[in-house]
Specification:
The protein is an alpha/beta fold and 76 residues long. The protein has one domain: Hypothetical Protein Ychn, Chain: A, CATH 3.40.1260. The chain contains two helices and three strands. A three-stranded parallel sheet has the order 1-2-3, covered by helices on one side. Strand 2, helix 2 and strand 3 form a beta-alpha-beta unit. The chain is globular, with a radius of gyration of 12 Å.
C-alpha cells in the first residue's frame, strides 16, 4: 500500500549531509511507489538554485532535478 512521506529540508546543500540524506530517502521512497513531498525552508531553498557548480560534492540541483522528474513534489 503506497504511503505519503513529507520531508523538511532546512539546511544549505553543502553545509552538511542533510541534503544528500533527504535526496536518498526521497529517491528510495519514490522507487517503492510512494508519494514524496519535500518542503524546503530557510537555507534549504538553496538546494534548488540553478547553475550550482559544486566541487567534490554531489550537485544538489541535479540530484533534486532528477527526483522531481520521478515525481518528487517540492514546496519552497
Amino acid at each position: 500500500m503506497p504511503k505519503t512521506f513529507t520531508l523538511l529540508l532546512g539546511t544549505a546543500p553543502y553545509q552538511s549531509q542533510n541534503s544528500q540524506t533527504a535526496a536518498r530517502l526521497a529517491g528510495q521512497a519514490l522507487a517503492l511507489g510512494h508519494t514524496v513531498n519535500l518542503i524546503a525552508s530557510g537555507d534549504g531553498i538553496y538546494n534548488f538554485l540553478t547553475g550550482q557548480k559544486a566541487k567534490k560534492y554531489p550537485n544538489a540541483e541535479e540530484e533534486f532535478g532528477a527526483l522531481i522528474r520521478q515525481g518528487l513534489r517540492v514546496y519552497l
